């Protein structure tokens, strides 16, 4: 923390700016306070972990030989959950999926960006979605990093956001900060970090002077027509009370990091052992050891190498060798630690490919039960955030659905099942008179695919009617009712062939 950035307002600002400036400084201090912990988590996810268990003797012996080494399991723990968090649409009312909400989603590239936001939320504990107008009567939704954005909540209501700050640096070092309040957006800028360095709390800080940032064609401050802070947090493992230096949620890899350090240490020990203990050491008895005539010190009688033999003239000389270092204990210790990671994070063991028979069929389904339940729980909290994002997007466009609180996020099925299992379960549900549209949803088809099915069935029924044949016709639920048709007459039997 020798080069911490801490902005402060210099001079005597306009009294009308004092409140937003004070809020800007306070939020920026909170944002800066968590940078080290966020960078720490990012490094472990990326596999840039420092080797924690290194003695001074080890460092002298190997230097930077293993500096970039890491057997990274943190990334797997995050990706195993994230790959099951796929949004397929939104439901406002009884329809299969809201087409307008999906159009907004697609227009903002959220098919891909939502996955980035989920990954960041799992790593850092939180990510953000920012909703604003796009300048063309549409909504613009961007996903934001916890390294650049922070939200402050009302002391009276846990879910009510009172302010949010987004701060970043341009290529030339200029600092930009947008302060989002329910009634307005205050934009500030500051020059490159000043050379004026002082000490605050024992840490060296650089000071900068924040000034209003005026954008051509915009009033200052910019009115907020939404009436709420338009930055929505996507929180992983939400808690009622979180340390102010951390993000709002809890990182998915926080508990994995100590075990990951131990895994790295054991693997390095194994590499060192394989380097120095793999070559079998030889011994000899009954041999007169020659001595240096000048120093009278014993001289090594043989030079060990792959293409050299040891020979002696005396029949009393005996040769032998010590066994190579057994690396199996290292492997077992690493597997034990990886099993701890699997249990603590509910990641299926076959994701780590631990020793043993690889599961299949019902075994995989049983092994993934914890991971599926974990993914479904995360869907519940993330759904609330994404539904608010879509409602804010509708508020930007003046759509009445902005006030609809019964919205539902449609997720793909996080459970791994074969196509045969899906179809078999669907046929059993059909026997219970489950509507065909619900069966389509249970089979994992997206709202867009279901809408295409309905159009295709209607087209098929129309073409059948034109052809004058009795065929399928669309039902009220979007399914197909099949009328009984006459079976064609059987083909005549072929004539008997004379013998």
What would you note in describing this structure?
The radius of gyration is 34 Å and the shape is flat. The chain has three domains: 226 residues, no CATH class; 99 residues, no CATH class; 57 residues, no CATH class. The strands form six sheets. Strands 5, 6, 7, 8, 11 and 12 form a six-stranded antiparallel beta sheet that branches. The protein is of the alpha+beta class and 499 residues long.
Helix and strand arrangement:
Elements: E1 4-5, H1 15-33, H2 35-46, H3 56-62, H4 74-82, E2 87-91, H5 99-107, H6 110-124, E3 126-133, E4 139-144, E5 149-153, E6 161-169, E7 175-180, E8 184-190, E9 197-200, E10 203-206, E11 211-212, E12 222-223, E13 231-235, H7 257-277, E14 282-285, E15 318-321, H8 328-345, H9 349-352, H10 362-367, H11 369-396, E16 408-411, H12 419-431, H13 436-442, H14 447-466, E17 473-474, E18 480-481
Parallel strand pairs: 1-10
Antiparallel strand pairs: 2-16, 3-4, 3-13, 5-6, 6-7, 7-8, 8-11, 8-12, 9-10, 14-15, 17-18
Helix pairs in contact: 7-8
Quick rundown:
With 499 residues, the protein is α+β, with helices and mostly antiparallel strands.
């Amino acid at each position: 923390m020798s080069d911490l950035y801490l902005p402060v307002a210099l001079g005597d600002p306009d009294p009308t700016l004092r409140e937003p400036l004070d809020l800007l400084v306070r939020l920026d201090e909170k944002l800066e306070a968590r940078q080290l912990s966020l960078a720490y988590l990012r490094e472990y996810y990326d596999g840039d972990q420092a080797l924690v268990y290194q003695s001074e003797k080890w460092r002298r012996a190997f230097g930077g030989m293993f500096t970039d080494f890491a057997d990274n399991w943190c990334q797997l723990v995050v990706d195993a959950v994230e790959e099951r968090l796929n949004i397929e649409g939104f439901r406002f009312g009884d329809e299969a999926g809201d087409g307008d909400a999906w159009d907004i989603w697609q227009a903002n590239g959220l098919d891909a960006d939502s996955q980035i936001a989920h990954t960041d939320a799992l790593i850092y504990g939180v990510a953000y979605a920012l909703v604003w107008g796009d300048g063309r009567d549409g909504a613009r939704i961007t996903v934001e990093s916890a390294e650049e954005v922070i939200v402050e909540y009302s002391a009276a209501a846990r879910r009510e956001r009172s302010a949010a700050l987004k701060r970043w640096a341009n290529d030339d070092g200029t600092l930009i900060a947008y302060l989002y309040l329910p009634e307005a957006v205050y934009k500030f800028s500051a020059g490159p970090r000043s050379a004026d360095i002082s000490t605050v709390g024992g840490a060296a800080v650089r000071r900068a002077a924040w000034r209003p940032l005026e954008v051509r064609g915009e009033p200052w401050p910019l009115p907020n027509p939404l009436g709420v802070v338009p930055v929505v947090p996507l929180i992983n493992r939400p808690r009622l009370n979180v340390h102010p230096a951390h993000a709002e949620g809890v990182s998915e890899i926080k508990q994995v990091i100590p075990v990951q350090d131990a895994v790295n240490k054991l693997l390095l020990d194994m590499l060192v052992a394989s380097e120095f203990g793999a070559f079998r050491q030889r011994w000899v008895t009954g041999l007169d050891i020659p001595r240096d005539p000048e120093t009278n010190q014993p001289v090594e009688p043989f030079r060990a190498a792959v293409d050299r033999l040891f020979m002696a003239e005396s029949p009393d000389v005996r040769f032998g060798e010590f066994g190579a270092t057994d690396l199996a204990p290292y492997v077992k210790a690493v597997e034990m630690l990886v099993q701890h990671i699997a249990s603590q994070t509910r990641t299926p063991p076959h994701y780590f490919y631990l020793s043993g028979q690889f599961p299949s069929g019902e075994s995989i389904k049983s092994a993934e039960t914890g991971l599926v339940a974990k993914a479904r729980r995360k869907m519940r909290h993330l759904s609330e955030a994404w539904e608010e994002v879509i409602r804010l997007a509708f508020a930007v466009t003046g759509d009445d659905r902005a006030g609809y609180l019964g919205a539902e996020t449609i997720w793909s099925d996080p459970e791994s099942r074969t196509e045969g299992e899906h179809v078999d379960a669907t046929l059993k549900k059909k026997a219970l008179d489950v509507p065909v549209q619900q069966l389509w949803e249970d089979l994992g088809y997206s709202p867009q695919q279901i809408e295409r099915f309905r159009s295709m069935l209607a087209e098929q029924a129309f073409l059948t009617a034109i052809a004058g044949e009795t065929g399928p016709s669309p039902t009220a639920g979007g399914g197909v009712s099949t009328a009984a048709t006459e079976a064609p007459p059987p083909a005549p039997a072929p004539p008997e062939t004379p013998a």
